[in-house]
Design goal:
Layout (H helix, E strand, L loop, with lengths): L39 E5 L4 H13 L6 E4 L27 H8 L11 E4 L4 E4 L2 H10 L18 H16 L1 H6 L4 H22 L12 H10 L2 H5 L14 H11 L10 H11 L43
Parallel strand pairs: 1-2
Antiparallel strand pairs: 1-3, 3-4
Helix pairs in contact: 1-3, 1-7, 4-6, 4-7, 6-9
């Protein structure tokens, strides 16, 4: 296995590098990249929660024909995600072995993180953006001309302020909070992150006791963002990242909520537990030196009834579910 890099800085709290390429693809092409079907390729890994969001939203909105998708393997070296799953280890559209190549086509010698998701301009082979929080919002707002009939409104105008407020808290304390636990460089920073994480999970449980979805009575961007962390909780974060006050399956409200989403078309069928486990346990060698991937937990319980229908609401509102995957 190639050098996997290090993720823990001794005696320091974990700080995520958020220096993303913030170029946007918009209807008016203000940043030089107009919305255009067939021009862009979304590069993802099913292992990564940030990329998993874009996979889900692309499928929910029906953007598969407008935006192609390249899938990196679940593991990577210290520098770049790679196209290990494709014949010849080359992305079949971009014809590159490493995502780093597309970053270098945009910024020669690019020194920041080579991250997924990334959207690549196919004609130039250059990354347009890896700004994952904005990508899914733009899928909803800027790409609406290419949404499927019956696509849900994941970012409704009348709920945007509340969605943004919830997303901010969930990102700080949960989405990134699990990493602040797992990559903490001191007991003090781990304890603080752990307490913040479970305090927010308790807050979310109280909120979701009385409503089926995080904001409003249908799925929104907020549910997508929380789901990808919850899906990784028992397979990875509980043990690997020491987020072990209890398992997700021992938190009744959040466990039922997560199963409700998992069983909704677009969520469970965009989740790959094998890739998730392979990535975290094989790549983070400074916290799992052996690289051994646990066989458990048994994930069949994701298919158990959740009973959340009793709270009202419906996943797609007046819309429809995406067609089953072929």
């Amino acid at each position: 296995m190639a050098d996997q890099g290090t993720y823990v800085e001794a005696n320091q709290p974990y700080e995520r590098d958020t220096r993303y390429i913030e170029t946007r693809i918009t209807r008016d092409g203000a940043d030089g990249y107009p919305v255009e079907a067939g021009r862009y390729r979304l590069v993802v890994s099913y292992a990564c929660p940030w990329a998993n969001r874009t996979i889900i939203v692309r499928r929910l909105l029906g953007l598969e024909d407008a935006i192609s998708m390249g899938v990196c393997g679940p593991t990577h070296d210290s520098r770049s995600w790679t196209f290990d799953l494709d014949p010849g280890h080359l992305d079949p559209v971009l014809q590159i072995p490493r995502l780093q190549d597309a970053y270098f086509a945009r910024v020669p010698g690019y020194e920041k993180g080579i991250t997924v998701p990334a959207i690549v301009d196919v004609p130039s082979g250059a990354v347009v953006t890896n700004n994952f929080p904005q990508i899914t919002i733009d899928f909803s707002l800027e790409w609406s001309d290419f949404h499927r009939a019956g696509a849900p409104d994941l970012y409704p105008e009348d709920l945007r302020v509340e969605i943004d407020d919830v997303n901010k808290l969930v990102y700080r304390d949960v989405n990134n909070g699990v990493y602040r636990c797992g990559f903490a460089g001191s007991q003090e920073s781990y304890d603080a992150a752990y307490d913040q994480l479970f305090s927010r999970l308790d807050w979310l449980s109280d909120r979701l006791k009385i409503q089926r979805y995080l904001v409003g009575d249908t799925i929104t961007e907020a549910d997508v963002r929380l789901f990808t962390t919850l899906a990784r909780f028992d397979p990875v974060y509980h043990g690997h990242f020491k987020c072990n006050r209890e398992k997700l399956s021992e938190m009744p409200v959040l466990w039922a909520y997560a199963r409700d989403l998992f069983q909704t078309p677009g969520f469970g069928d965009s989740t790959n537990f094998d890739h998730i486990k392979s990535h975290y346990y094989e790549v983070h060698r400074d916290i799992n030196p052996s690289g051994i991937v646990p066989k458990g937990p048994d994930l069949a319980n994701w298919a158990e009834p959740h009973g959340r229908e009793a709270l009202g609401g419906s996943p797609f509102g007046r819309g429809t579910a995406p067609a089953p995957l072929v």
